[in-house]
Amino acid sequence: MTTTTNHANLQSTITLHNDVKMPWLGLGVFKVEDGPEVVQAVKSAMQVGYRSIDTAAIYGNEASVGQGIREGMGEHGLTRDQLFVTSKVWNADLGYESTIAAYEASLEKLGLEYLDLYLIHWPVQGKYVEAWRALETLYKEGRVKAIGVSNFQIHHLEDVMGTGSIKPMVNQVELHPLLAQTDLHDFCKKHGIQLEAWSPLMQGQLLENPVLSEIAAKYGKSIAQVILRWDFQRGIVTIPKSTKAHRILENGSIFDFALTNEDMNAINGMNQNIRVGPDPDNFDF
């Protein structure tokens, strides 16, 4: 699927295979310290129009994310159903009962009654199938709006699809121009699983790339905006991380231009299958 409309905005959504609507762009808070910094980042995002916030148990900042959400809702007259909040179960808690307990702990820290999306953070061998069974229970009981996975390769997805009764709604993975994830993207599209990109800017390593720089100059946009627009036009949900209000605003300003097919192909051609994060088939944490 290619999305090229310029009528989209920060509230625009993609409909997941269970009919839940998920914003195309969200704020990621990986490595944002718990406390005033993450509270302000969440509030800044909500102020400029973001409606999706992505955190995780291992980030250690769920309490402050929740505080930012509550304060932001009050300041901007938003209701809970206008927001899309994601968290993830960490590796140490994978298992049936422990995953359910981890979900409840995340809700308590966030101060929320439910999550819009709950993900298995990493495919720990021998544990993620049981964890998926727990997510299915939470979903069937109506305690979470959507369930999914993170950092899953095709064979991990086949495992949970082969043993479970519900397909993941989302697969959140490292994805950027040097790791385009084309095969995984094709697989997810075939099975109705929404792909979501973390580290879309490759932790800042692409912000001086000459190919991207030339494209950005052509549109009068930043490299970050070009990358996020590339994701959007590929039909990929994206969660860029920033703590600075002007960057949060800039990252959200991608709906007033469209990349040509030529520019899309130029960015597609940058792929080298290079990761900045761990390999999902070979990690130790």
Automatic annotation (TrEMBL):
PROSITE patterns registered for this protein in UniProt: ALDOKETO_REDUCTASE_1, ALDOKETO_REDUCTASE_2, ALDOKETO_REDUCTASE_3
Short name of one Pfam family: Aldo_ket_red
NADP-dependent oxidoreductase domain segment(s): 26-270
Gene3D superfamilies: NADP-dependent oxidoreductase domain (3.20.20.100)
Statement: the UniProt record of this protein carries the keyword Oxidoreductase: yes
Organism domain of life: Bacteria
Membership in a protein family: Belongs to the aldo/keto reductase family.
Alphabetized InterPro entries for the sequence: AKR, AKR5G, Aldo/ket_reductase_CS, NAD(P)_OxRdtase_dom_sf, NADP_OxRdtase_dom
Protein name: Aldo/keto reductase
Keywords: NADP, Oxidoreductase
